[in-house]
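We modelled the chain as a single entity of 425 amino acids. Its sequence is:
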Amino acid sequence: MTPAARLAASIEIIAEILQRAAAADRVVTEWQRRSRFAGAKDRRAITDSVYAVLREQGMRRWRVVQAGAELTPRLLVFADAATPLHVWRDLCGSGTYAPPALDETEIAALSKLPSDEDAPLWARANLPPEVADMVQATFGADTEMELAALNGRAPLDLRVNMLQGNREMVLEQLRADGIAAAFTPMSPLGIRIPERVRLDMNSLYRDGLIEPQDEAAQLAGLLVDARPDETVVDLCAGAGGKTLLLAAAMRNQGVLHACDNDPRRLARLSPRLERAHARNIVIRDADAMPELLRELEGKADRVLLDVPCSGSGTWRRNPEARWRYDPASLDEVLRRQRGLLSDGAKLVRPGGRLVYATCSILPAENGDQADWFLAHHAEFTALPLAEAWPAGVTDQRIRSGHRLVLTPYRHGTDGFFATAFVRRS
């Protein structure tokens, strides 16, 4: 493909991401499937170009608006401070597969892009203004560094399935396959690969020895400290990433109930169970929830609540998602989280554990919800992290206090929150 054709493809993909409100990786994959003419280098270059735009969307939006123009997918791509106007003029309209030539409005806007020195925090952080204000309350003096990390590329973290193997053998095999990898620093189950690689054809993945899972999510699952022969409930299992971790911790002994009210996400769990050789899991959909609450009231040893949330802690993986977040929806999300906390609390036996977790960096979804729970459920007490972890979790950064707060800048993980409560005997 020519540079002009690559540019046209990038504009097409950006337009589709914005118009469909679809996940960027899905749109890119769909474009690649219908564009067999694109070679490997073309696909890589186009993907890099698309994500460069998405990770700088705040600055580009600001530049276009300051130039007095209406934001369009084309201008979002062209508003790159590092690329002179003449480059776009040369590429656009230059051939059969090139984008149409720049029009007068586009030329006028690109001729007067402002200096980046005047850009506000929200633009530099690649966040909507109201969200930047919310996040600043979270990070304080570290805001600039945290937001830069939240806008960076995430590594590929893997969780080793201890039902099938161990970290040492998996790491050795990955390196033998020519994949640069190392142990994650905090999770005793994790391996980190700095660059993205395809794993679906790797024998370790096909045989169920590894699952992609950020180290922060692994730690949230480890905080449950599920054990063999227990009754454990994953009340918001989704596609089952943490469910699989719990099953391995239980050594396939006892009963693990995987519940979710989204049948599409829950449907993805069954094939994963088979590949992971997890056999102690009972899948419960939304229709089975009332029965579950009656059946297990006061009987569960451990309950995990990885609740639906803003997903703001994962925005480095999905840079387009931050521009779709609606702060007006927060009150309804908080009500739902509190409802799930109350439902989960009913299931826990005396002496049992309830773990609340989010992939969020917003205080309202995290510490504020933990405070609400303790104020409304006097039958529970907060568990110190030092007493909560299973053997193997030794990093001192995550052993103090009662609440696990992970961030991209300080820990190199997704933004994540988790805390454990124990029901008084």
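As a brief sanity check on the tokenised model: The chain has three domains: 3-119, 156-212, 215-423. The longest helix spans residues 3-20.
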